Amino acid sequence: MLETIKRSNRKIVLISNCYSEEVGVIRQSALAKYFDNMYLSFEQGIKKPNPKIFIKCIEELNVTPNECLYIGDGGDNELEAASDIGMTAIQAGWYLERSGQLKERRNLSFPLLHTPKDILKYLE
């Protein structure tokens, strides 16, 4: 899925709340090569759902919020925050389903993705 999006010349950005000890792991992960940029809360000094982390990302990408698709599991009110500034927000449910957490964490205000490949439907 990430390779398909990357080949389409779309930007892929990671916005993540993390602690100092997680920064290196995230930046050195096998997935890091797919991201055009990473906005990690520890480095930014801003945590989701503070809209400033989303706005900083949008401004540095030189795009408008309505050009952005935000995908998250819904923790920390991230979906509401992204939506409030004009992004299209969608809940990633695939690992919530696998871990049995979907029932208690499902946010009915947002569309639900059952697999990562479902993201591609929103990019057509």
CATH topology: Rossmann fold
Unreliable sequence segments: none
Shape: globular
Secondary-structure element order, N to C? HEHEHHEHEHHE
**Biggest sheet, in brief?**
3 strands, parallel
Distance between the termini: 13 Å
So what's the CATH class? Answer: Alpha Beta
The amount of beta strand, in percent, is 15-25%
Structure, described:
- By secondary structure, this protein is α/β, with parallel strands linked by helices.
- It has one domain (8-123): 3-Layer(aba) Sandwich (Rossmann fold).
- The chain has seven helices and five strands, in the order H-E-H-E-H-H-E-H-E-H-H-E.
- A three-stranded parallel sheet has the order 3-4-5. Strands 1-2 form a two-stranded parallel ribbon.
- Helix 2 links the parallel strand 1 (13-16) and strand 2.
- The protein is globular, with a radius of gyration of 14 Å.
